[in-house]
Amino acid sequence: MSSNFKRREFLRLAGLGLGLGMTRTLAHAADETEVHSLPRPHTSYPQFGRLPLVRASQDRIVKETVGLRPFRESGPNLSHEKIGDKSVFHNYGHGGSGWSLSWGTSSQVTTEALSTGAANFAVVGCGAVGLTSAILLQRAGKEVTIYCKERHPNITSSVATGVWSPDSRICLKDHATESFADWWNTTCRTSFKFYQSFLGLPGSPIEWVDSYAVSNTPWDAERPKDPNDTQPEYGHFRDYVKDLTPRFVDLDRSENPFREPYARKGSRMIFNISAYHQTLLREFTSLGGRIVTRDFQSPSQFQELPEPVIVNATGLGSQKLFGDKQMHPVRGQLTVLIPQPELNYSFSNNDAYVIPRRDGVVIGSSKNGIIDSTNLSVDPRQSFDAVAAIARSMTQSKIAKG
Ligand SMILES: Cc1cc2nc3c(=O)[nH]c(=O)nc-3n(C[C@H](O)[C@H](O)[C@H](O)COP(=O)(O)OP(=O)(O)OC[C@H]3O[C@@H](n4cnc5c(N)ncnc54)[C@H](O)[C@@H]3O)c2cc1C
After folding, report:
1. Could you say which residues form the signal peptide (predicted)?
2. Does residue 67's CB lie within 6 angstroms of at least one atom of ligand 1?
């Protein structure tokens, strides 16, 4: 790769708004890009004659869910502390990226936990993060018991969209420092690599699908800020790992089957959460893992566990359990339609998105995050509008006209 290219890439990354103090990280990111991605030619395969329609209709709704993302201002807490004679390794606060980053943060935390030399480990929490931590400890030959208040399907991990979204609500923009970006880059790459080992398994726990994004306005057009949007500014790091996934390609009018004039096509990795959760659980139990129901009111109760080393993967539970003031719930609502086995692409327009999961067609509003809201009631208007927004794109597309 030419030094000119490296410089251009460096300057482009520097333009991401992460601040002038980030030069070392940005250079590192450019180097990563150089190592991992020789320029890849890409081909778009127009196939709209064969695209199935999303059957977005209100009477196909089978489930509406609300979950609270475990957002932490400065990013996940992966620190270590002694509580009495127990060593506690924290692994919580993954925001909207908990499934995506689970293998990455769990690899780091369990490597440290294993360095204690213990033979038995407790993991508190049975969500995406607790299960992956437990499995990594078992893969290292250790005995693991999971303790948790609740488990699938009654936890946040069960009500996630199920897409590779490794920088979603991962920290506040103010905390997007050089060292954070470096850490995120490494963690993200580790997690991504683990996920590729779950492809092609029975039940398709993880798969890649084509992905279409459409818009009524040009991609670079300024969008008016919604006056009701109270979201803080989050850190964004996605460009550091853009070499990991196929690029989105703009479609010209002859290739664009949708009613919206602007369309892009790419690919995205999705998590079929029911099947993926079962896959994780099967590995955990087949390696001798036990799950014990237990609700901890205070960290001092960790003293009562027989295991000397504990991984704390309690997600938003850590806000109360450890009094972590950096933790905030970020509410998210999803609408799930009857599965459509033939649906093989994800889709988004200006108002909503669709993920073709095997366990249900998941629809979310593009305004799907309210910070510090703990309201777990479904907002029927939000569900209705999101499904209607997808229906509009579908019924007026060329696919519908045949
Ligand atoms: C609407 C929505 C969409 C999302 N979409 C995506 C996505 O597409 N991709 C992605 O990567 N992420 C997504 N996320 C984020 C992801 O779901 C979370 O980051 C992830 O589930 C966090 O996992 P966890 O294991 O830390 O927490 P949880 O799943 O909440 O698990 C915590 C565990 O700890 C236990 N626990 C808590 N407190 C205690 C206690 N005091 N005593 C005992 N046990 C306790 C709980 O019972 C549970 O077993 C989404 C989240 C939401 C809400």
Report:
1. 1-29
2. yes
Q: Is 347 left (phi over 0), alpha (psi -120 to 50) or beta?
A: beta
The alpha carbon of 155 and the centre of ligand 1 are apart by a number of angstroms equal to 6
Average pLDDT over residues 296-308: 98
Return the pLDDT at 265. 95
Specify whether the CB–CB gap between 106 and 187 falls below 8 A.
no
Cα–Cα dist 230/173, whole Å: 15
DSSP structure string for 309-321: EEEE--TTHHHHH
159-171: burial string, b at 16+ Cβ within 10 Å, e else = bbbbbbbbbbbbb
pLDDT of residue 146: 99
Q: Give 364's strand partners.
A: 334, 353
Give the pLDDT score at 227: 76
CA dihedral 67, 73, 77, 81 (to 10 degrees): -120
**Closest C-alpha to 36, from 189, 207, 210, 144:** 189
* pLDDT (tens digit per residue) in 216-257: 999 988 877 777 777 899 999 999 999 999 989 999 988 898
Residue 294 Cα: closest atom of ligand 1: 43
Alpha-helical (H) ranges within 257-364 are 273-286, 317-321
Q: Is 144 in the pocket of ligand 1 (CB under 6 A)?
A: no
pLDDT confidence tier of residue 20, bands split at 50, 70 and 90: very low
Residue 105, ligand 1, Cβ within 6 A: no
Whose CA is closest to 389, among 214, 164, 160?
214
